[in-house]
Amino acid sequence: MRKVAILGIGQIPIDEHWEKSIRHLAGDAAIAAIAEAHIEPTAVESLYVGNMLSGALNKQENVSALIADWVGLRGIEASKIEAACGSGAAAFRSGMMAVASGVNDLVLVVGVEKMTETGGTNTTSHLASAADADHEAAHGLSFVALNALIMRRYLHEFGWKHNDFAPFSINAHANGAKNPNARLQEAITQKDYLRARMVADPINLLDASPIGDGAAAILLYPAEKIRRNGQPIITVAASAAATDSIAVHDRFDAMRLAAAETSAQKAYAQANVTPSEIDFFELHDAFSIMAALSLEACGFAERGQGVRLGLENQITPQGRIPVATRGGLKARGHPVGATGVYQLVEVIQQLRGQGGDTQVPGAKIGMAQNIGGSGATVITHILQRE
Amino acid sequence: MRKVAILGIGQIPIDEHWEKSIRHLAGDAAIAAIAEAHIEPTAVESLYVGNMLSGALNKQENVSALIADWVGLRGIEASKIEAACGSGAAAFRSGMMAVASGVNDLVLVVGVEKMTETGGTNTTSHLASAADADHEAAHGLSFVALNALIMRRYLHEFGWKHNDFAPFSINAHANGAKNPNARLQEAITQKDYLRARMVADPINLLDASPIGDGAAAILLYPAEKIRRNGQPIITVAASAAATDSIAVHDRFDAMRLAAAETSAQKAYAQANVTPSEIDFFELHDAFSIMAALSLEACGFAERGQGVRLGLENQITPQGRIPVATRGGLKARGHPVGATGVYQLVEVIQQLRGQGGDTQVPGAKIGMAQNIGGSGATVITHILQRE
Asked: Interface pTM (ipTM) of the complex?
């Protein structure tokens, strides 16, 4: 297997893009990546698209062929990978494997989702399709309600108060305020968090990430063929995926993201690093409870102690384990199937030293973790600057 | 890249399975494949699911994690590949690449679709999501109407009559009548074809394939590790994918399936064979016009002459290029995202000599071609007996 490097990245601001169809969103990100890499578009050999809801919300399946044609790549191999909100990183992993195995040299990965203009379709109902349709959604559980049950149990079991979660939201918004591509570019205070409207008790509006229309793209290429040109090379040091039961009540332990733990452990082994060597962590903070559980699953905190990292100010760009450095799902936004690719684009920016006002000082090894469902499908990547 | 072999196959009859959810359909096929291979289920390392409409019709995304857990494989890597009606073969190709590259040894591929019980959702409308949502479906074109336009043009351009297409349907039904897993197990006559109710002129009911609930599964393993035990080994000699524009009016030539041609040419090159060496061809006869165009694109007939193969009786199991040997999409049925895996299971059955009453005599090299949209995404596989 060959080492895989990053040849180019592209993204569009996450927003309500009323004037653009899903092909335009994906195309804009893809063309930005192609332009940044200074390659001929026709050099791209295959396309892997991460997307969750194009069929349900946009009445458009087969988006990979659509996008390939739209960006001038008619004829190339193209497919869509779906793993609910983990679709973006799942697509990146497929593209990475195509390059690593030698099937292709130059591969384009695009994550895209168009969620805010859906012709009257109920987006909340379709987001619940990430949960177990027969045993969770059928009982009226929305996706936020499911996470509220997990958060409620966490508060009960470990003795935290709701406002102990505030630092996750405050850090994410502080970082998002400095990211021109973020959906919510405004800092918030502890007081804002305490006053936020309740969505599904105990999850309030500032515990929950916003949906949006967005697309991000990454070009992959064999590391051995990259010309350095004085620039650092960013490579994929690890890529690992794991699953758990979709239904939360089926898990052996609802307070433990077993698939996150498994995929992180596999990734650490592949990259030959320990959690202490990870310089920053783009985690899947769809809800603040997920941030805490992810930190615990990946070995940054003990069971039930994830919130402590926030309270001790260790998750900011200057902290011990910076998270959501460009706003995270909470403030950068969560266009579900695109999110995993945004996370990876942001890891690459940090490793290149392009983190802007939220640059993590001296970042050399970054981790991104993308979660489909409330912990059902988890894909972890570790990237490094060489 | 390692040569990949077949370790086991499973399928369920295509039907209206009112008592089964999508997990049960997929699970039944997967467990059949695992049982046939005589392996411990826990030996399976990853799962690739081909499915198109679970989100739209079953309100269930993230089906790969759901299925993995249901069949006792909780924790393994799992993802869903979607390429409209080409999803099944696209998933097989992903699984094949995982084994060929050495990422995994033992991989499970499942194609599944549940279409007949959809809580009031309009299946025809969701099938149209395989077409261009903005420029075809938005104008009211259903998927059958789109194929009717293509067939109408074909009749006009090449001077055939509608009933010249009858042999495709008659052959498919004759073969399906002898396949216990087929949706339609009844032979038809030329008279039946002529009298069939019109659906979208010139496509009548016997030009069109039936939807259904179905699932098929294949276990893949490195050829070098297979123990022969006196049985023939079936290997994947070629796997190739290509795309075209989704919208038919955007194509350079609406009478030519360019992606089918490209992927077939790539497959022939990989397998080092010519069309004349292919013993039988499981083609994507979603509509009879697609059978004719596929035969032409893959080099079995000249442009505009695909129907001649039927009229000259060359497509039956005893003919020069048998097609739809177990009923094809037309009679075996077309549970859209599962179809590509059914095709491959049937190729494997023929190569093993398990083709039953429609066995192709001396079959050694078989080809399967799965099409997403009206020619937008095409995946071609060539398998052989060693």
From this structure: 0.97
